[in-house]
Amino acid sequence: MRGRFKAFLSRLKALVGRKKLDHDLQDEVAFHLDMREEKNRAAGIADEEARYAARRQFGNLTVAKEGTREMLRFLWIETLLQDLRYGFRMLRKNPGITLIAVITLGLGIGASTTVFSLVDAILLKPLPYPEPGRIVVPSLVSPPGINLGSPYFPWGQVQFRMFTREQTVFQYFGAFQSDSFNLTGVGDPIRLDGSRASADFFPALGISAALGRTYSAEEDRPGYEHEVVLSDTLWRQRFGADPGILGRALQLNGTSYTVIGVMPPNFAFPRAEEMPVFLNFPREAQLWVPAAIPDAPPGGPSEMAVIARVKPGVSLNQVQAQMDLIARHAEQKLPDWKGWMNTRQVPLATQVTGDTRGPLLLVLGAVGVVLLIACSNVANLLLARALARKREFTLRAALGSGRSRLIRQLLTESLLLALAGGAVGVSLAEAGICFAKTFGPANLPRLHEVRMDVSVLCFVSAASLLAGIFFGLFPALAATRENLVESLKEGGQRSAGNSSSPRIQNSLLVSQVALALVLVISAGLLAKTFFHLINADSGFNPQRALTFELSLPPLQYTDQPHIVTLYRNVLDKLNKVPGVQSAGIGETVPLSGQGESTIIRLPDRPAASRKELPYANYTIVSPGYLSAVGTSVIRGRDFLESDILSSLPVTIINLSMAKKFWPNQDPLGKQVGVGSTQYALTTIVGIVADAKHVSLREDPIPEMYVPYTQHVWPSMLTMHVALRTNGDPANVTASVRDAIRSIDPALPLAKLATLSTLVDDSMVTPRFSVLLLASFAALALVLACIGMYGVISYSVSQRTQEIGIRMALGAHRRDVFAMILAHGARLAGLGVAIGLLAAVAATRVMAGLLYGVRPIDAPTFIVVAVFLMVVALVACYVPARRATRVDPMVALRDE
Q1: How far, in Å, CA of 587 to CA of 715, rounded?
Q2: What are the pLDDT digits (tens) for 400-416?
Q3: Structural contact between residues 629 and 545, judged by C-beta atoms closer than 8 angstroms
Q4: SS3 content of the chain, % helix, strand, coil (to 5)
Q5: DSSP code string of 767-798
Q6: 63 three-class SS
Q7: Which end of the chain is less congested by CB atoms within 10 angstroms, N or C?
C-alpha cells in the first residue's frame, strides 16, 4: 500500500512538472549514452562507430522516453488536458459562434437558475425551525356541503381546551390569533400588528428569544397576561435596539405590558395563503402577548388557529387517528356541534407553500422549456460547425484516431461552452433574483430567503454539464459518422455531411417550434386571465376612495354608547373635511380580507339540522359606507341616520344572497336573523352589488350588511374608515389625520391606502406570473426564430449547387424563393401541429390558475399558431431572398 501511494505521488508530481520531467529524462538518457560510448571507445572502437553502437545497445530513445513518461504520468489526465487546450484554441478560432452559443446558453441557464432559486427557497428547503417536519397545523374542517369560503374554520376557546386536555400525541399544542395594538407613550401613537399566542406557541416552533425570554404557562392565564415579547424589527426601529428594554413598561391599547423578551432577527410565523383568511394573521407580527385562555372558557366567537409539534416517533396517521377520536368524544359532550369537530393535520411546510406550489412549478416548467430551446439552438449551431470540420475529422481518423476519440474532443468543446454559459447564467441569475425579491408579490412565502447559495450553485453546475452533454452529443455523433474511404475520395470538395445531419437539424428545429408554441399559448392564457381580472366586476368603484383602520383601546371604549358616539363624531368630522364627498365605516372594506361568516336564520325556511344551517358574511357598516366604497344599491335603499337601536332592525343583502335564498322572489321586506335567537330578526330594505373581499377572482358569496347603530359586537373595536373624495385622495390625508387627532390624539391611522392601491396589490401575483411567463415565452420565441433562420440559412448554403443547376435549367427566382420558403413552412407547420397537441395536454395542468378562460381556448390556440407561423416565415424570408441571388455560373464553377 505504501509503495502504491509513493507511485501515485510520483505520477502526480510528474504530471504537474512535465517540463522538468522531460528535461530530467533528456539528461538521464544523455548520461547513459555517454557511459556506453566511453566503454566502446575503451574497447578500441572508433569514435563515430562507438556512438552508433551505444545507440544500438541502448534501444529506441523515443520509445524509452514515452515508456518512462507512461510510468510516471496519468495518461487520461494528460489526454484531457490536451483536449481542453485544443478545445480552447477551436473556440478562440471561431469567436462569433462561441459568443452566440455562450449568450444563448447564458440566457437559458440564467433564467432556469433564477426560477430554481425561488423553488428551492419556497418548496425544497426546510423551514427555519428545529425539526420542522414535526410541526403541523391542526385545522377544524367544515362539514360536507357547508361552504364558508374556505374548507377550514377557526378554533374557539372551548374546542381548543377540549383537545388540549385529551391529546397525547403533541409535545406542544399552542393557539394564536391576530390582533392589533395601539402603542402610546413612545413618540407618536402607532398601530402595531401582533398576535395573542398561548405559551406553547414558541416551543411548538422551537424558537427561543434572542434577548430575554418568552412567557411561561403561569403568565398565560387570565389576570396575569401583561407580558409582551417584541420582534427584532420593532425593537430596532422603535427602541433603537436598546438592550435595557427588558423590564420596561409599554402602553398597549391603554394597558401596561412589561417587555420580557426580543425574538431573533427575521423570526416570523410563515403565514401562507392557505391559512384560513378570516384569521388575517399578519405577514410579520411585531409583538406577541399571552392569549390567556381560561381553563373553562365560556362560549364565544371562534377566531384562533393552532400550531403543534408532534412528539418524537409519532406519525401523522397516529396524530390524525387520535384527533378523530377526540372529535367524537367532543361531539358526545356537545351534540349541537356534531360534524363540526373534525380536524385535519397539515404539515407546516405544506401549509406555508399553499397555492404557490402550482404557479411555481408551472414557471419552472416554462423556464425548462426555454433551456431546452436554447440547447437545441446551440446543438444546431455546433452541428453546422462540426460538419464544416469534416475534412479535419477525416484526416484525424486516417491517422488513427478512433470515433470515440473524436466524440470526446467535440464533447470537451461543448462542455467548455456550457461552463462559459453557466458563468454568464450565474451573473444573469443574480440580477434575476434581485428583480424577483424587489418586484415579487409580498404574499409569496419565504421570498426573503431566496439567494444564490450552495444548492443553487450546484444546480447551475449540473444544468451546465447536462446542457453541454445534451447539445454536444448529437452534433458529435452526426459529425463523426463518416465513411472514411468516401470522405477521402471527396478530397477538398465541399460536402453536405452525412445523410442524417439534415434530419437531426430539422428534428431539433421542429421541437423548438413545438416547445415555443406551448409556452406562448400558456402565456396567452395567463394574459387573458389577467385581462379578465382587470375587467372583472368587483362590486365597488376604487377611484378616488381612501381607506384606513381605527383601533379603539378596549379599556377606554367599553360600552355601546361610547363606541357609537366616537364613530359618529369621526364621521361628522370627516364629512366636513374639504374635498370629502362621503364617509363611512365598516368592519372591512373591499379587498382587505374576508369578512366574518356566521349562521343566519330564515323564518320562512327553517333548517332541518345543524349541517343544513345557512351561512352568510356579516358586515357591520354605517350610513354612507356603501356610497364611500362605491358599491351601488340595485334595489331598495341605503342605511339612514334614523336606523338606530330603537327603530326597526334592518339589513341590506348582496345580489348573491338574494339569488341563493330567494330565487325568483322579491327579497325586499323579507326577514333574516343572525346567529342565535338572542338577536332579533332584521328586515331586508336593500339589495347591493357583490363586492369582492379577498381577490378579484373570487366567487361572490352571500353577504348581509347591518348598521353599526343597531348592533355592537366586539369586532367594532377595530373598524375600517372609507372616504370618497372629489379629487386626489392624497390631498385630504393631512386634514383627515388632523380630524382624527382632534377627537382622540391617541388613535393612530393604520393601513392608510386607496382602494385603487388595494386593487393593484391584489393583482401583484397574477401580474408577476404573467410577466414571468410572457418573458420566457418571448425568449423562447426569439430563440426558435433564430433557430429557424440558422437552419434555413445552412440549408441554402448546402444547396447552392442544386439551386444553381435549377436556375441554369430555367427555374425562376420566385420559384427558388417559394421552394426555400416552403421548406421552412413545412418544418414550422410540423412544429406547430405537434405543439398544439402538446398544448392541449399542458394547459389542462394550469386550469386552476385561469379565470374567465378555459384551458383549451380556441381563439388563443388559433391566434398563437398563426402568429408563430408568420414569425417563422419572416425568419425564413432572408435566407430565401439570399437563395434567389445565387449566380448559376459561380455555383456550377464551384461544382
Answers
A1: 7
A2: 666 777 777 778 788 88
A3: yes
A4: 55, 15, 30
A5: HHHHHHHHHHHHHHHHHHHHHHHHHHHHHHHH
A6: helix
A7: N
